[in-house]
Amino acid sequence: MKKLSFILAVMIIFSSLFSNALLAVDDQVTVTLDGEVLEFDVPGRLIDGRTMVPLRGIFEALDATVRWVPETREIISHRGFDTIRLTIDSPELYKNGENIYTMDVPATIIEENGESRTLVPVRAIAEAFGCGVGWDAETRTARITSSPVELPKSVKILALGNSFSDNAMRQLWNILDDAGVEEIVLGNLVIGGCSLSTHWGNISGKADAYEYYKNTEGTWSKTEKVSVQSALAETDWDVITVQQSSGSSGKADTYGVLNAVARYLSENKTNPDARIMWHMTWAYQSDSTHATFPDYNSDQIEMYEKIVAATKEKVLTSKYIDGVIPAGTAVQNLRSSYVGDTLTADGFHLNGTNGQYTAALTWYSAITGRPASDISWTNGPLVESQAEPIKEAVTNAIAFPFEVTPSAYTEKP
Q1: By residue range, what is the domain housing residue 379?
Q2: For strand 74-79 and strand 115-121, is the pairing parallel, antiparallel, or unpaired?
Q3: N or C, fewer C-beta in 10 Å, the chain?
Q4: In angstroms, rounded to a whole number, what is the distance separating the alpha carbons of residues 109 and 82?
């Protein structure tokens, strides 16, 4: 009798598992983007008739950033200058502060194989970013058609930086103007060689310690003795950037106050949808005489790789950072072309021709989500003659921000 009971119990268990497996497979759906099948860490599935997919997978496929706020169970995503917000188990979806969508199946957290997964409705997310979505019932496929990121009429960017942010922003106004942005406000809080720890000390002490450079009409002005607090309050910035001092940029152990700085900026910005972005800077020229270059064995590649490693370890894990501007990778990509290691003025600061242009174009593409090919303006004949490898370097840096993509332009025309 006990043996029979045991056999029946085993049959019931296997039957249950088999039924659940069939149900799981039966609920699975395919998702494509512009005809390409999207691969997720867990399959998309139907829940109450709606296609639900893993949170990070769908946002990254749409070239959108994503940030999880555990305290409020809120999901915040940026694509270009569009911001969407949704909360677990809430039907409301907000775009740029406006409630645009009431979802009949909201974002939810499921447990699978002992791990939590956040699923979001694919149609609501894709349509919020302007993409088209179709459903093929026969093949159980959700088909997404992407849409280009729209350039906003107004762009306001504030940098908490040093001479490297000055290098990167120096030609940014001209590039944004060439793209068709109607209102451009650029601000740059500068202390030469300023580190994260110095920024944090100045924030904590409300110190009037910065030179404040501003550009609204194509020309930079300078104001002495400005605090982070006063610059933050000056306008509703769309993007606020922060960076480490160049010599410490590849030393992860110097990033200890990053979260404190980024959190302060996030909590004190006047535009709730403003993004906090990290400016990933460049390695020094191979023959640089900078005092900190021996910390990297005076090896450009070693310095670049350590900058990338520090960014991955400290920046990508910060819940207050919304994206990375990979200027350092764009510079390194361009160095692999016939242009070579000729982008600095003194071995570390970018020169005013191809160096600063490359960094500014990277800022444009990373911040707006628009391609480098948008831009026809150049700062002179040298950059005009090198436009193709420069735009290739920037395009590849945006696509692969943490690795060098060798240039196809190895022979000088």
Answers
A1: 154-399
A2: unpaired
A3: N
A4: 25
